[in-house]
């Protein structure tokens, strides 16, 4: 390790020497307005971000000294950026809005003469289409910059008076249909505007326009009114999509989407690089909203939990298509490699009805890597210190100006025998996975209005676990050691096609289809479980407006077919679920509020006709204070065997107490979810800070109970008789104490109870109290794009109720509650430039582990053996290393 660090230091030193001699730097001084230390920091930061090698601002002399490489960046470019953050200088004047947004202590005297002029004028308009049209007309008339503000109904113009004039620009704006304080558009031009752009011509200038129906953002006229579910522009990266298919893109980090009526968190792939993130189950280590259960002691499975409830109540989609459900419930999180993920959209509470009926606690959608302006190939190599290795190869490349393609390849293997608690059982399964996908994208939205996305994915996953020395080739019914074998094959093919109507950018039609084949063959000691699933899904969505884009609607129809064929021991369970459905959703947008109300009706052949209403409401008390309300219903059918495989590695016999339902003799699960949240933004020492607090309640109308308490030798399923509810409260604080240092604190409280046969009890394995802290710091980038990153995450988990084992012999009894514990993960990474990155990390650095993870491990074929009682990590500290290379 010392030799490795020495090589890094030597390499950085040599690169620095090379850089020093390669550059030709020039030093210049410019006049810039500012008042205080906050101004100084803001000006210098803006200059460095714009490309200055060094930037030193003197408050006393009101001068900025820049050291730049003139071959790479011009001083004018830097001074323009400084004006954009609010500071007048000898070349450019800040806009009035930028100046007014500065803290009061930073409001300097604005007497500086510049070589350009800026003025604000009243211009009428309604929406993003108006914004794009007004700003384009202004620039066509010679403006250097133009920014139209919908709320103020004003355009800010920056122009050189030697080249054009305000009158010329405003006349051009009127010529394209927009009245302003100097010129009025002719009637024919006004009437030919899209209906959503027909502003009220009688409202006096300076008065609020009630027809305004969008937040300020950098959108194109085409993408303004296009359905978020058909061809949308993802707010986190300003990308046009078809059902989540990236058409054009840029990159950002994690944030809460302020425009959405629902509580939607966007996790970018840069956030995923803060941790190991080998697959989707590890993609939420730096996110406080999702809880990840620890690997099962025998099968190695992980599960997500949200709002205090298991993963099965959250809709898990890929490319907005149903993904982890049915037979994929247990292992599906490991089927989406972390390096394949472009972004994740996490919705708390009821999601849109256009995406189906199964969401109860929320939705987690994963977008895969798609589209690039130029070919890009990436290689990722990963290995931990306990025998796990993986490799990822991704290639995203344009074919021509309309077509692009993506190749995704993943392979992993676990080869080492890991037994940190010395119980003779592997702490995680050994095995391999091969995962390959191909994506093809077509984008001709600007001309023909068509866009399409095609994808195909194949997975082969094999894993072996149990006692060390177990041979998978041993006949199942004559073993000398306890073993688990799981073989999975999965194939998917999908297509999504959308059309935007010519001359009506707010009107679109989209159709998506997917077929999934999933096969699992497995055994757990002397028990066998196998299952096969065929799924076909289709969804047709039409979107348009009612009069203007203040009033949008979506309507459509869907179809779902699930064919299941399962075998447990000697029993066979077959069912076909056929679900045609229809839905409609209305969105009302005002100046400060957004209401999304929808409903769907589904005709389930086994669960009966189901009505699913949902509503989300957002109100902006101020631009920095946002309140959201949500309510909705969801239903699902439980795949009781596939969803509870973590309990198969035990002595428990399965009992199903049927009540006349059509799925394993049980009725479907139905629940209502209600939520309220408040988002408050403010500044601390001039830096952005955000607090989010939310409360959600889930009430089950019917539920399939998984009863582990009736007997430690039984796993019992039956329908709820009585009440079952989950209360979830979370508060999260994000702030940046100083440049490049991000801090996130969170606290969560859960109260999850249900009426079991034996009475009302807390749900097992759910801590009432949880704490979370994430710290992330990165050094400034050097000229080659190199920098260091340091990330650490601390999770504190309170005590959890454990299943009742009081009827076991004393030595095989668990306490009523677990103890609380803390887990620390950390990672340090080095980007040598924009193409090479190396990282070193550690998981569970506190080395806390559950010592009694397997009950009666010495006698795995006896009555008391149980490998499903896992509430904490079963592995001590684990270190890993990795390398990312982009070609």
From TrEMBL:
<dbReference type="GO" id="GO:0046872">
    <property type="term" value="F:metal ion binding"/>
</dbReference>
<protein>
    <recommendedName>
        <fullName>HMA domain-containing protein</fullName>
    </recommendedName>
</protein>
<dbReference type="Pfam" id="PF00593">
    <property type="entry name" value="TonB_dep_Rec_b-barrel"/>
</dbReference>
<dbReference type="InterPro" id="IPR037066">
    <property type="entry name" value="Plug_dom_sf"/>
</dbReference>
<keyword id="KW-0998">Cell outer membrane</keyword>
<dbReference type="InterPro" id="IPR006121">
    <property type="entry name" value="HMA_dom"/>
</dbReference>
<keyword id="KW-0472">Membrane</keyword>
<dbReference type="InterPro" id="IPR036942">
    <property type="entry name" value="Beta-barrel_TonB_sf"/>
</dbReference>
<feature type="domain" description="HMA">
    <location>
        <begin position="25"/>
        <end position="90"/>
    </location>
</feature>
<dbReference type="InterPro" id="IPR036163">
    <property type="entry name" value="HMA_dom_sf"/>
</dbReference>
<feature type="domain" description="HMA">
    <location>
        <begin position="116"/>
        <end position="181"/>
    </location>
</feature>
<dbReference type="GO" id="GO:0009279">
    <property type="term" value="C:cell outer membrane"/>
</dbReference>
<dbReference type="InterPro" id="IPR000531">
    <property type="entry name" value="Beta-barrel_TonB"/>
</dbReference>
């Amino acid at each position: 390790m010392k030799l490795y660090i020495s090589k890094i230091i030597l390499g950085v030193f040599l690169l620095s020497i090379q850089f020093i001699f390669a550059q030709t730097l020039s030093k210049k001084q410019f006049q810039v307005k500012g008042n205080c230390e906050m101004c100084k920091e803001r000006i210098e930061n803006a200059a460095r971000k714009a490309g200055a090698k060094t930037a030193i601002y003197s408050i006393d002399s009101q001068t900025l000294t820049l050291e730049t490489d003139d071959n790479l960046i011009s001083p004018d470019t830097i001074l323009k950026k400084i004006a954009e953050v609010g500071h007048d200088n000898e070349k450019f004047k800040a806009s009035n809005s930028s100046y007014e947004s500065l803290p009061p202590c930073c409001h300097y005297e604005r007497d500086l003469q510049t070589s350009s002029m800026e003025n604000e004028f009243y211009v009428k308009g309604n929406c993003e289409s108006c914004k794009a049209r007004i700003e384009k007309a202004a620039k066509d008339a010679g403006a250097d910059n133009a920014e139209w503000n919908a709320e103020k109904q004003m355009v800010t113009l920056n122009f050189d008076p030697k080249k054009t004039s305000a009158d010329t620009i405003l006349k051009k704006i009127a010529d394209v249909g927009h009245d302003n304080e100097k010129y009025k558009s002719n009637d024919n031009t006004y009437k030919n505007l899209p209906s959503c752009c027909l502003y009220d011509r009688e409202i006096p200038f300076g008065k609020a326009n009630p027809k305004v129906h969008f937040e300020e953002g950098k959108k194109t006229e085409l993408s303004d009114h296009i359905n978020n579910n058909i061809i949308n522009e993802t707010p986190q990266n300003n990308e046009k999509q078809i059902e989540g298919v990236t058409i054009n893109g840029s990159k950002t980090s994690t944030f809460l989407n302020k425009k959405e009526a629902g509580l939607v968190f966007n996790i970018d792939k840069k956030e995923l690089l803060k941790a190991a993130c080998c697959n989707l189950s590890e993609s939420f280590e730096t996110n406080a909203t999702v809880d990840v259960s620890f690997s099962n002691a025998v099968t190695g499975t992980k599960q997500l939990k949200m709002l205090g409830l298991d993963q099965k109540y959250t809709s898990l989609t890929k490319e907005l298509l149903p993904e982890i459900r049915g037979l994929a419930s247990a292992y599906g999180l490991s089927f989406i490699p972390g390096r394949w993920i472009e972004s994740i959209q996490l919705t708390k509470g009821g999601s849109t009805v256009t995406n189906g009926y199964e969401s109860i606690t929320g939705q987690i959608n994963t977008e895969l890597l798609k589209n690039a302006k130029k070919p890009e190939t990436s290689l990722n190599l990963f290995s931990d210190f306990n025998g796990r290795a993986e490799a990822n190869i991704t290639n995203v490349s344009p074919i021509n100006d309309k077509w692009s393609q993506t190749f995704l390849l993943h392979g992993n293997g676990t080869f080492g025998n890991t037994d940190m608690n010395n119980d003779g059982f592997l702490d995680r399964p050994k095995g391999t996975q091969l995962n390959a996908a191909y994506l093809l994208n077509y984008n001709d939205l600007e001309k023909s209005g068509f866009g399409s996305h095609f994808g195909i994915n194949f997975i082969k996953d094999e894993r072996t676990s149990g006692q060390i020395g177990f041979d998978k080739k041993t006949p199942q019914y004559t073993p000398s050691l306890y073993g688990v074998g799981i073989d999975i094959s999965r194939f998917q093919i999908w297509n999504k096609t959308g059309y935007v109507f010519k001359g009506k950018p707010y009107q679109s039609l989209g159709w998506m289809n997917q077929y999934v084949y999933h096969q699992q063959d497995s055994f757990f000691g002397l028990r066998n479980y196998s299952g096969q699933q065929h799924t076909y899904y289709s969804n047709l969505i039409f979107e348009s407006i009612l009069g203007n884009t203040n009033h949008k609607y979506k309507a459509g129809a869907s179809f779902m077919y699930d064919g299941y064929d399962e075998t447990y021991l000697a029993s066979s369970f077959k069912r076909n679920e056929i679900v045609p459905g229809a839905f409609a959703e209305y969105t009302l947008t005002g100046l400060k509020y957004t209401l999304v109300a929808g409903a769907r009706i589904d005709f389930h052949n086994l669960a009966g006709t189901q009505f699913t209403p949902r509503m989300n409401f957002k109100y902006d008390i101020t631009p920095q204070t946002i309140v959201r309300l949500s309510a909705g219903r969801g239903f699902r059918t439980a795949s009781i065997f596939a969803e509870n495989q973590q309990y198969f590695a035990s002595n428990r016999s399965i009992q199903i107490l049927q009540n006349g339902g059509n799925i394993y003799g049980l009725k479907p699960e139905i629940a209502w979810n209600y939520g309220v949240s408040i988002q408050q933004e403010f500044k601390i020492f001039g830096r952005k800070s955000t607090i989010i607090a939310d409360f959600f309640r889930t009430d089950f109308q019917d539920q399939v109970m998984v009863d582990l308490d009736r007997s430690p030798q039984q796993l019992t399923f039956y329908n709820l008789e009585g009440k079952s509810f989950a209360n979830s409260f979370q508060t999260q604080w994000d702030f940046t104490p100083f440049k490049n240092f991000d801090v996130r604190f969170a606290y969560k409280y859960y109260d999850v109870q249900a009426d079991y046969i034996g009475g009302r009890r807390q749900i097992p394995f759910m801590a009432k109290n949880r704490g979370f802290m994430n710290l992330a710091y990165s050094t400034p980038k050097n000229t080659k794009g190199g920098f260091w990153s340091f990330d650490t995450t601390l999770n504190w988990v309170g005590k959890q109720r454990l299943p009742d084992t009081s009827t076991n012999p004393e030595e095989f009894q668990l306490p009523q509650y677990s103890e609380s514990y803390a887990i620390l993960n950390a990672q340090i990474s080095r980007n040598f430039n924009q193409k090479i990155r190396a990282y070193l990390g550690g998981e569970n650095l506190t080395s806390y582990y559950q010592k009694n993870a397997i009950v009666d491990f010495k006698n795995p074929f006896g009555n008391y053996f149980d490998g499903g009682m896992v509430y904490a990590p079963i592995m001590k500290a684990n270190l890993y290393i990795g390398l990312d290379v982009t070609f």
